[in-house]
Specification:
The complex is a heterodimer of chains A (about 900) and B (about 70). Chain A contains 33 helices and nine strands. Chain A is mainly alpha-helical and about 900 residues long. In chain A, helix 6 packs antiparallel against helix 7. Chain B has one domain. In chain B, helix 1 runs antiparallel to helix 2. Classes of the chains: A mainly alpha (about 900), B mainly alpha (about 70). Chains A and B meet through helix 5, helix 10, helix 11, helix 13 and helix 14 of A and helix 1 and helix 2 of B.
Chain lengths: ~900, ~70
């Protein structure tokens, strides 16, 4: 036993151990690796031995011809994600676990369609699994010592590895009867394998680029010089034909959606829909990384090894050349991982299809024919699936021995991709288009699959019989236009592109054409609604269409007991009844019809939707659903949905109105508060002079004889002064009220600003002299003409200047600056200034009065408020800034 | 539905033209002469495509892939 045999055994033990640990302690594991990352890495089961070995082989021949296989999924990822989310919901709702069940369920639980899909998948994918087995044995033979009989050794290794892989798949792929339950251990193992193959690939790439050659540039330079020197051939540019590329990208993208293993990891094993969103970009990133060094390794292989060397083995050869045991071991395990992951998941998916869509329906049909309940299978379903897995792997094993020896990994991979793509129209069309019919799905799959066999399979078996060779060379009955490798003689189509083009074109056209000319049954229409409107089915208040029928509880229990432990069946039925408030009457002849539908769903997870439907219909007398009823319910659901949308809109409008009202209410409250405050302030301001007038009047009235003429005159003067103050205040309030009410009309006239300023200077001169304040005016030399209400503007600047005089200590400056569009008038003082937080409130009515902390000179505090209203009427903005080092600047902007 | 599908078709075509056109048309004749340049150019475009997909995934989780509670 050499070291690699030991390594292989240890690796298998490690995989078993990881699967076991993950099954038992997934919560603990998720603390270190997020479930989203595990999900994305499990999607990398797409990268098989084809990627690991075949891509380098392809790149060595064509340069970048390997890329469509990875660009396809990258491009189609948005559509795949959209479909997966729908599929996840449909599968959870109807307990569907594989693609044949899904397609069968979509088209009215058609057993024949399910069987056709399963058969096509098995035929299309067995060669692909065979190639993976070949890759495993190639890996094992590569690391084995030279044998006397290498072929016999290879066969032995192949058989052993096939058996171990089958064992792993059987243990971790079918642990429970209910296939709808998740295989956590298996998925974590697949994710682990994806990491191993990526790391191995990157390490070899790095060693080739920076170890074997000094840099990637040196590697490419050497290649170019050898190509130019004629020592090696250039790449085959025909592989980059645009049409061929497009078709290869398209078929890879479609296969990514329709491959059973991708469905298994992306839909059946999904735990959280949000992981799908992350995979949209994370999975293409994985593809990017695993392809990073493909071209450098391929080029290096062509430089280092002879033209006879199989380029599919370059990766292994370089790992051995590095003389680093760890790298060789990692590459070997990466190769095993790439192949094993694919074989295990694909086999599980195919075995589910085989049992659910072919074997169990047959067994149910036989039981039905014998007019009895199916005999108890219990754990038998699990063993049936295990037998299915073994059968599929053994079929692949024999295929590998008989046929695959002559084929390259890449060619078989593509042929399988084209085969599974034939499901795309029925699958994608069924998920997104309600009018797709069962007949159309059946016809399109048959047509596509037939053309696939005719164009791609027949030509590969040309050497097997002269008749086949004759057909391939000259077409059937000598009609050259029907030659399988070039139907209708279309130019620029290589045999593979020819197969892709014709099979998919005929398939799509058949699906659309037959759908338009055939009618759905009520069952199909019901399922079409459920699939296409999966995002809408949970409309609250809408009537859900369910089959009504009658069956006794005992019958349902007996039916479940055929597949589950009696204790579990009881528990399921009891829990469902409790959740839905159904009273279980054990002796009643008929139980609630919801119990029947529930039993059907439970059975779907075990034996598939079609078989489950068949079984339920055999034990219950169900009413047939009328087509008109389906239409009525669909219409009703649409109406409820539309009503719900209307209600949502109305609610949103009402909420907006309510918010607006709240806002208006808040404003009214503020205005009310302002009004109260204003009244308080005004009455206070009026009461002060009034009190003074009244007191002086009473003194004069009561003590007329006491005061002499001079004293009386002084008192009377004070009374007049206070009366004037009141009058001024009242007239200011009235003025302000007129401005605010918008009842004041501006009296526009044109005037020269300098003249206005001179008048103002003259008016304030006594005040300036009284306070000994210097006043300087800076005006432009040009004539500045304004068109405004002159009297009001005079009032504004008078207020601003008198205000400045009140606070200034030594001087006031008035600047007038003019440019083409505006005039800027600023009045700066050197007073205490205005705090930044009060630059807006300063224009409020009674600002001075409300701010008790201000060193308050005389005045009502209405001047600035009036000035602001006047400027607002003119639409001239005013602002206040701090004057350095102290003081304030009032700036008025006048637009011309 | 149509809007969602149209968005996907637009993205598919954008990515397809972004990568396919330079690779198949512009580089066909230069691959054997400048494989390094072709590879670098191509890898940059592929990374940009992944960036586009990342942006799309953020939008799509709200519209194209509504979560169950919406």
């Amino acid at each position: 036993m050499n070291s690699y045999t030991v390594l292989t055994v240890l690796y298998f033990i490690l995989l078993f151990w990881i699967a076991r640990i993950a099954t038992r302690h997934i919560q603990r594991l998720n603390r270190f690796v997020s479930p989203a990352h595990i999900y994305v890495l499990s999607l990398a089961v797409y990268c098989t031995a084809w990627t690991y070995f075949g891509s380098i082989g392809n790149a060595a021949r064509t340069g970048v011809g390997f890329l469509p296989v990875y660009l396809g999924p990258t491009f189609i990822m948005p559509l795949a994600a959209m479909l997966w989310v729908r599929m996840i919901r449909v599968c959870a709702q109807q307990r569907i676990t594989n693609l044949s069940d899904l397609i069968s369920a979509r088209y009215g639980n058609s057993i024949s369609l399910g069987a056709l899909v399963a058969l096509c998948y098995i035929v299309g994918i067995i060669p692909y699994i065979a190639i993976q087995l070949k890759a495993v044995s190639t890996c094992m033979v590569f690391v084995s010592p030279q044998m006397e009989h290498p072929e016999a050794w290879k066969t032995t290794m192949n058989l052993y590895s096939t058996m171990v892989i089958s064992l792993f798949a059987m243990i971790y792929g079918t642990r429970r009867t209910d296939s709808a339950e998740k295989h956590t251990g298996l998925i974590v193992t697949i994710a682990f394998e994806s990491v191993i193959k990526l790391v191995a690939f990157l390490m070899v790439g790095f060693w080739v680029c920076f170890g074997l050659f000094s840099s990637p540039a040196a590697l490419f330079d050497q290649f170019v010089s050898q190509v130019q020197g004629g020592q090696i051939h250039p790449f085959d540019a025909a592989a980059m034909d645009p049409l061929g590329w497009f078709l290869a990208i398209l078929v890879s993208g479609l296969a990514f959606i329709t491959l059973p293993r991708q469905f298994q990891v992306a839909v059946t094993e999904n735990n959280d829909e949000r992981h799908v969103g992350k995979s949209i970009w994370m999975f293409p990133l994985y593809l990017f990384l695993i392809n990073l060094f493909v071209l450098p390794i391929a080029i290096a292989g062509r430089l280092v090894y002879s033209a006879e060397t199989d380029p599919d083995t370059f990766l292994l050869l370089f790992a051995r050349k590095s003389d680093q045991g760890l790298l060789m071991a990692l590459v070997y395990l990466g190769g095993l991982s790439a192949a094993i992951g694919m074989i295990v998941v694909e086999t599980i998916a195919l075995s589910n299809m085989l049992t659910n869509s072919m074997v169990i329906p047959g067994w149910v049909a036989l039981s039905k024919k014998a007019n009895r309940l199916p005999s108890s299978l219990g754990k038998g379903v699990v063993w049936l699936r295990r037998a299915g897995m073994l059968l599929i792997i053994m079929l692949a094993y024999f295929f590998e021995h008989l046929v695959a020896e002559r084929l390259t990994i890449s060619s078989v991979g593509f042929i399988s991709f084209v085969a599974v793509s034939q499901m795309a129209p029925a699958l994608i069309g069924g998920m997104l288009w309600k009018n797709g019919t069962r007949a159309a799905a059946f016809a399109s799959i048959c047509a596509g699959f037939f053309i696939w066999m005719y164009t791609l399979i027949l030509s590969n078996f040309a050497g097997w019989s002269p008749v086949i060779e004759q057909v391939v060379q000259h077409g059937p009955w000598g009609i050259a236009l029907l030659r399988p490798t070039n139907i209708l003689g279309l130019p620029n189509l290589d045999p593979l592109s020819n197969g892709i083009f014709w099979s998919l074109s005929v398939n799509v056209l058949t699906f659309i054409g037959v759908s338009l000319f055939t009618k759905q049954s009520a069952e199909e229409a019901l399922q079409a609604e459920a699939f296409v409107d999966i995002h809408k089915v949970a409309v609250p208040g809408a009537r859900q269409l369910e089959r009504r029928g009658s069956a006794s509880l005992a019958t349902l229990r007996n039916l479940l007991n055929s597949f589950l432990q009696p204790r579990k069946s009881d528990q399921l039925l009891r829990n469902f009844a409790q959740r839905h408030g159904i009273v279980l009457e054990h002796d009643a002849a008929a139980t609630d019809s919801r119990m029947i539908n529930f039993t059907e769903r439970v059975l779907s997870g075990i034996i598939g939707a079609a078989s489950s439907r068949m079984l339920i219909s055999s034990v219950s007398s169900q009413e047939r659903i009328a087509f008109t009823e389906v239409l009525d319910v669909a219409k009703e659901q649409q109406q409820v949905l539309s009503l719900n949308n209307k209600l949502k809109r109305k609610t949103s409008e009402l909420k907006k109105m309510s918010d607006d009202l709240k806002s208006v209410n808040e404003q009214l409250k503020i205005i009310d508060e302002q009004k109260d405050e204003f009244l308080t302030t005004v009455t206070h301001e009026l009461r002060t002079p009034l009190t003074s007038i009244r007191a002086l009047g009473e003194v004069l009235l009561d003590h007329d004889d006491v005061f002499d003429a001079a004293q009386r005159k002084h008192y009377l003067g004070t009374i007049v002064q206070e009366s004037e103050r009141m009058t001024r205040l009242i007239s200011q309030i009235l003025t302000l009220e007129r401005f605010e009410a918008g009842r004041y009309k501006l009296n526009y006239s044109s005037f020269e600003l300098r003249a206005l300023m001179e008048e103002l200077t003259e008016s304030i001169q006594p005040l300036l002299e009284e306070k000994k304040i210097s006043f300087q005016v800076f005006m432009p030399n040009t004539m500045v003409v304004l068109r405004a209400d002159r009297d009001l503007l005079w009032q504004v600047f008078y207020n601003l200047l008198t205000n400045a005089i009140k606070y200034a200590k030594q001087h006031i400056h008035l600047h007038v600056a003019q440019d083409l569009q505006s005039i800027r008038i600023s009045i700066a003082d050197d007073g205490p200034g205005i705090p930044a937080e009060q630059t807006q409130t300063i224009f409020d009515k009674f600002y001075q009065i409300k701010n008790k902390k201000l060193l308050k000179p005389e005045g009502s505090g209405m001047g600035l408020a009036i000035s602001k209203r006047i400027l607002d009427l003119h639409e001239y903005p005013i602002q206040v800034e701090a004057n350095k080092p102290n003081g304030a600047i009032f700036i008025v902007h006048i637009e011309q | 539905m149509m809007k969602v599908f149209a968005r996907f078709v637009f993205l598919f075509l954008l990515l397809f033209l972004l990568i396919n056109f330079p690779v198949t048309v512009l580089m066909k004749s230069t691959l054997s002469d400048h494989p390094g340049h072709v590879l670098i150019f191509f890898l940059i475009i592929w990374l940009f495509a992944i960036y586009l997909l990342r942006t799309y995934s953020k939008i799509s989780m709200k519209s194209d892939l509504p979560t169950a509670d919406e």
